[in-house]
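Weekly structure sync, notes
Attendees: PL (lead), two postdocs, one rotation student
Agenda item 3: pending single-chain targets
PL asked that the sequence for the first pending target be pasted directly into the notes so everyone works from the same version. It is reproduced below exactly as submitted, 237 residues in total.
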Amino acid sequence: MNVHLRIGDNRTFALKQAVLLYQDGSRAFATLHEVKHRTNEAPYLCAGQSVTTGFLETLAKGLGASMAAEVLPEYVLARTPDLILWWSRARPRLMFFGEGNAETMALNGKMYPHPALVFMIEGRELFVRALAENRRPSAKTRLCNAPYWNTDSHGRVCLGSMRVPDETGVASLEGWESAYFASEFTHPSGAVRLTTHPGGFLGLWSSLAGRKRAFPVKSLAESKQTLKEFVERRGEG
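Predicted structure, written out during the meeting:
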């Protein structure tokens, strides 16, 4: 068996062990087998042994799932090797629109008040929800849909050509947030209620262009999710 991998430098990998997964309905277990090689013959598996937690930890590190220790600031809400969740206070932000018609061009590049937001990165995907209150949310806090184009009903952002940071650690979060608002809001993403404003999305932002008052949280549409559900479902609805 020949395996070819490109990892950025010259290394030779040899098949040493194999993990077999057995499943019966919702129950499963795994066994670890040494691989024996024979000249001019296919390799074979030796008798298996139970997979240990230590082996899984070593495997995870080898696959890049290890995570350096970080001191988490107050705005970080949750952190795992493949997910980070944080919130951002309500504040004015610039917005850019890319539809190219007279209505959106009139809104482009202006300052707007924004609600408090919750952002989540999983892998290289970005999700965003809005908060009705300008304070750190708890697991039971009910979230609202983010009132922005390019964001679907699950909170998943269509990144398009957005220039996001290469990293997803704590130090990069400001960069992800800035990249989101530096990009153009171009289109609605699926059947999602972005706002309860009677004028819809464009009516909402037209009423807020250049205004210094706080974002009207009564215009936020409920997502029917708590913060805990948002993290657990991870874009699955």
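Discussion points:
- The chain has a mean pLDDT of 87.
- The first helix runs from residue 53 to 62.
Action: rotation student to compare against the earlier draft before next sync.
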